[in-house]
Amino acid sequence: MKKTFLYFQPEYVGKFKCDGEKCNARCCKNWRIDIDAATYKKYSKLPEAQEIISQIKFNEELDKYIVTLDEKRFCPMLTEENLCRLQKDHGEELLSVTCSTYPRHTKNFGKFFERALTPTCPVAAELILFQKEPMKFDFVEVPMKIHSNNGKISITNFSVPENDVAVFFEIQVAMISILQERRFTIDQRLIALGFFLDKLQELLSAKADKETLMKSIGTYESEDFLMNELPPLIQSVQTDSEKFILFMLKFLKYTLDCLKSVEGRDFIKAFAEVLEIHPDEKSRVDVPKIISKYESLAEARKDFFEKYSTVLENYFVNEFFMNVYPFRFAEENITKNFAVFMISYKIFELMMFSATQNGLTSEKDLLRLVDWFTAKMDHNKNLFDRFFDLLKGIDDTFLLMTLLLKG
What we know:
alpha/beta, five-stranded mixed beta sheet, three-stranded antiparallel beta sheet, 19 helices, globular
């Protein structure tokens, strides 16, 4: 009997199929492509070894072999059909760990695995973003070859004590359920999630037992909570545009430097024009003018949410699940993890709103936006470290929501 592995994953993962022509080999352009030592050794035994190895350099600082991209910033191993020449000529076993893994994000929780796809892959992003129904999740049995591809698929071990795995899973299911509750606006769902995580942090800090945790999780998923207890909680979160803009500008100052690139030029331009963010020669901005402009766009923002709420929902549900929030940054508590997720999402929301206001509304435009934003944000540890520095002193989920959300 062939060995299989239990996976919890979005349904779209089973529909994914790499298509180099459809995405213009986006995974092979502008990325640092690492080649593991075992794959490099296989390359050295091929008939065309000299040609291949001449395009791979060893980086002593990183202690890795790195592919040298061509003049167009593509992997030199690509064919004219945007397919991997090595895989085409010699089979899938010639793919490196990096190339076998992308765009998968796989995590090991001991009793089961989780897998999602990153939207930096346009084929994956299309599956993720444009489905009209809430993203569905399934448990599936995965055979060894797909699970690890003979050890080629990179899998991250996520530390959850065996006795806590069931609770962790129920927490995830509850969070996804809250984020997909379409009877509420996106901000209202984020408020509900904030209260849920605040209670969860309280219980974990008090070392509550499994039964207490499970009971609390069930409470926040119940119809009684959603329909009777949540509305007054939502009303208690009263914010204003001035607080929101002042808070966000602190984070945008560093984020915009991180996001600058050729791929993001149109979106940065739209963001600056729509919100009238025009730094002077000393990098100062007219904050009252930005606040006034943001407030004047209230009706436009309302129309934006009505038109794009499913795209936004699919984006943040995938992001939340793929990065294992609110436990992504193990050294930080749940509140700080939630804060970083919220800030990152709100920046994306502002970018997408600005893009659509400037006419960048096609599916192709939105795929470019998500590709660029995710690539620049998700791999930038220094930026997240800066976010945590700026969040020092904010350990109150309620305060965070009043700064970031409008009920």
